[in-house]
Amino acid sequence: MFVEPSITVARLPELGERLSDLPPTNVRTMAASAQMWPAYETKVNGIAFEIGVDSQSRVRFIATTDKSFASPEGLHPGDAMAAAINAAPGETVTLERGWGNYILLPSGWYAFIDDSHVDASGKYDLNLGTRPLGSNAVISMFFKRG
Known about the structure:
By secondary structure, the protein is mainly β. It folds into two domains: 1-64, no CATH class; 81-145, no CATH class. The protein contains one helix and ten strands. It has one helix at residues 81-87; strands spanning 28-32, 35-44, 47-53, 59-64, 94-96, 100-104, 110-114, 117-118, 124-125, 138-145. The protein has an eight-stranded antiparallel beta sheet with strand order 1-2-3-4-10-7-6-5, with helices on one face. Strand 8 (117-118) and strand 9 form a beta hairpin. The protein is globular. The relative contact order is 0.19.
């Protein structure tokens, strides 16, 4: 099991912001179907975030699955897909093959929507945007990337 290096930040960084004095990491975060970034974990106001950076230490991906996180729209990990759709008038759920499903929220955060599950035999049924979402789909993560 790999553990991401932990970094301390005074506030959640912005996309494109350069972070200084990052320790080396062999851990990568998957930020798209064909994009992985060196990854670090941090906590801001007690909420855990994963941060992906490029070779120049610029922030390219921010994500959280922490149930304490609330988007500016009031959404949390675990909320139903319908709540995300209702919070984003005029937006539709985007299917990105090889990564998953998400919707852009008015705040600029994306709600990653997932219906992956473990079946009765213990087999993990991962949905990487390879099939339509089921009625059990929920917000599993919030992210920003750029």
